[in-house]
Automatic annotation (TrEMBL):
Keyword terms of this UniProt record: Calcium, Membrane, Metal-binding, Repeat, Transmembrane, Transmembrane helix
Location within or outside the cell: Membrane
Broad class of the protein's primary localization: membrane
Gene Ontology biological-process entries: regulation of neurotransmitter secretion
Record-annotated membrane-spanning stretches: 383-413, 471-499
Assigned protein family: Belongs to the MCTP family.
Gene3D superfamilies the record matches: C2 domain
Protein known as: Multiple C2 domains, transmembrane 1b
Gene label: LOC115429206
Pfam families: C2, PRT_C
Domain C2 residues, every copy: 29-144, 186-299
GO cellular component term, pick one: synaptic vesicle membrane
Cited SMART domains: C2 (SM00239)
UniProt source species: Sphaeramia orbicularis (orbiculate cardinalfish)
Length: 561
């Protein structure tokens, strides 16, 4: 939370400034010691090491719920840093990276809580770990007993020294020094590819200035400062007061642990008596950075879907090891722990629905094109498709599958057609209340219908296995037995050829035949759970009659029974 972070920085800076005056009064004035507020601000943000915690599990925890179970989660605290696990299970299996600052202690506090929906969470226990007792650059397997409770927490802790994390003025730029740049290039050279796999590279960000920012104060000005975030690493500039065109001229250096990370630069307006106001934000993928190029980035809104007022000028350099970057691509990405809680939004629901709809329509268009070949809408296209199908199936080998994907990627690269929707960067035309109401209603109806279809087919597959309709299950057994015999006796290549020939010639053999899918037709005969309940036969023992109830409400049937 940038607001909480700014508040924390103000507390730290005030404390450090008081200490500076005490030290200054105690020493000889001839030493010429001068401590600047900006230097204290810089030191308060830098860390001297990283504490990597792999939270494994909790054992023998006290059950806090009436059912004899719990929904436990863990909280970490190291100095002013606070994190919590997101998994409500004693098998947490989560990774955390905490920063070890110069000015904070080395005692890690862990508390375990039981999540209770609708009321205050229950405290289970706590434990503490003195990090100064652990050796660095080594993973420690620890089982920490909980105080004030039974049970203990199992975790892996690794202390690593931090490098290349800094804040400096433009006059002190690490990558502009030829010797230091050469040393960094050697550190991330090809011969260092197998050392310290989590250290992929570094990124240096020069925050120059911003222009035309929004007015946030009643005076017609703003007090802007920048917050830079790379995954869970977070640094910020000083505040330029009463200025809509601030100049920061600061250099920030981050470790890159994942080359696919996104650098987020957010501009806030500082308010002394309340939370900081949002002014604008940009998100820059590391892989899209062009080294040494100073660019002006248009600021966007919080959701990064539309533009807001202002431009920020940045110059970014990135140096990384290609082998490490490739190997880190196939491991789980670092989880961001400082995130806003998701909120219910009709606009977001409609936007996500339209995104899914577009993906489905693309697949549907491909399916329609393939089906047009089967329907012989174009004789030339169908003949070419049929010959190509026969040749590929007859000569197919397993190595051709990745080769086909390579050809597909090459064709896409050669054509270089990039479809980009500008709707994410521009606000749509204003709609009336009724138009919005009908749009939301259409979304809910479509989602409701789609969920019903998915649930129905899942229940039909389950009911086939459960012998809900014995005739259909016996039919499925017969078909599966015949398929087993055919697959055992006939090579799969010939079966695929037979299927393709049948699909291509079906329209030629019978021009008026209705196309169908045998599997879907079979499943449509199997009743879903709703249909099973609605067609349930209820016997009236008093009169000996049978009532066959069809298509009635499920809750009503359950209440009658």
């Amino acid at each position: 939370d940038p607001n909480a972070l700014a508040e924390t920085f103000r507390v730290i800076l005030c404390c450090k400034w008081v200490n500076c005056f005490k030290i200054f009064n105690q020493i000889n004035h001839d030493d010429g010691l001068i401590l600047r507020l900006s230097e204290l601000h810089r030191k308060a943000q830098l860390w001297r090491g990283i504490v990597s915690i792999a939270l494994i599990e909790g054992r023998n925890l006290i059950p806090m719920d009436p059912n004899g179970l719990s929904d436990p989660y863990a909280k970490f605290r190291l100095g002013h840093q606070k994190y919590r696990s997101k998994t409500l299970s004693p098998q947490w299996r989560e990774q955390f990276d905490l920063h070890l600052y110069e000015e904070t202690g080395e005692v890690l506090e862990i508390t375990v809580w039981d999540r209770d929906t609708g009321r205050r969470d229950d405290f289970i226990g706590r434990c503490q770990l003195d990090l100064s007792t652990l050796s660095k650059e080594q993973t420690h397997h620890l089982e920490l007993p909980l105080e004030e409770s039974r049970g203990y927490v199992v975790l892996l802790v690794t202390l690593t020294a931090s490098s290349h994390v800094s804040i400096a003025d433009l006059s002190v730029t690490p990558l502009d020094d030829p010797q230091e740049r050469a040393e960094i290039l050697r550190r991330y050279g090809i011969w260092k590819s197998l050392s310290n796999m989590r250290d992929v590279g570094i990124v240096q960000v020069k925050v120059m200035r911003a222009e035309g920012l929004m007015v946030a104060d009643v005076t017609g000005k703003s007090d802007p400062f920048c917050v830079l975030e790379l995954n869970n690493d977070r640094l910020q500039t000083h505040t330029v007061y009463k200025n809509l065109n601030p100049e920061w001229n600061k250099v920030f250096t981050f470790n890159v642990k994942d080359i696919h990370s996104v650098l987020e630069v957010t501009v806030f307006d500082e308010d002394r008596d309340r939370s900081a106001d949002f002014l604008g934000k940009v998100a820059i993928p590391i892989l899209r950075i062009r080294n040494g190029e100073q660019k002006g980035y248009l600021l966007k809104n919080k959701q990064l879907t539309g533009l807001t007022k202002g431009v920020i000028y940045l110059e970014i350099d990135v140096i990384y090891n290609t082998v490490k970057a490739a190997l880190r691509t196939v491991v789980p990405a670092e989880q961001k722990y400082i995130e806003e809680e998701p909120k219910v939004s009709k606009q977001l629901l409609q936007q996500n629905f339209n995104r899914v709809k577009r993906c489905i329509m693309v697949l549907f268009s491909y399916g329609t094109y393939i089906n047009s070949c089967f329907e012989w809408e174009s004789a030339q296209r169908s003949i070419i498709s049929f010959v190509l199908f026969v040749v590929v199936v007859w000569n197919f080998e397993l190595y051709m599958l990745p080769l086909a994907l390579l050809l597909l990627l090459y064709c896409a690269f050669s054509i270089k057609k990039i479809y980009y929707s500008s709707s994410f960067l521009q606000d749509s035309e204003p709609k009336g209340f009724m138009d919005k109401l009908y749009a939301i209603q259409d979304v809910f109806i479509s989602v409701q219908t789609a969920l019903d279809e998915v649930a129905s087919y899942g229940e039909r597959i389950k009911n086939t296995v459960n012998w809900t309709v014995p005739f259909l299950t016996w039919l499925a057994i017969t078909a599966l037995f015949l398929a087993t015999v055919l697959l055992y006796l006939i090579p799969i290549r010939y079966l695929v050829l037979a299927w393709g020939v049948n699909k291509f010639t079906k329209k030629l053999r019978d021009p008026y035949m209705i196309d169908n899918n045998e599997l879907v037709d079979f499943l449509s005969r199997v009743p879903s759970d709703v249909q099973v309940v609605s067609r349930k036969v209820l016997e009236c023992k008093a009169c000996g009659a049978h009532w066959i109830i069809c298509h009635i409400n499920v809750k009503h049937i359950l209440s009658v029974t």
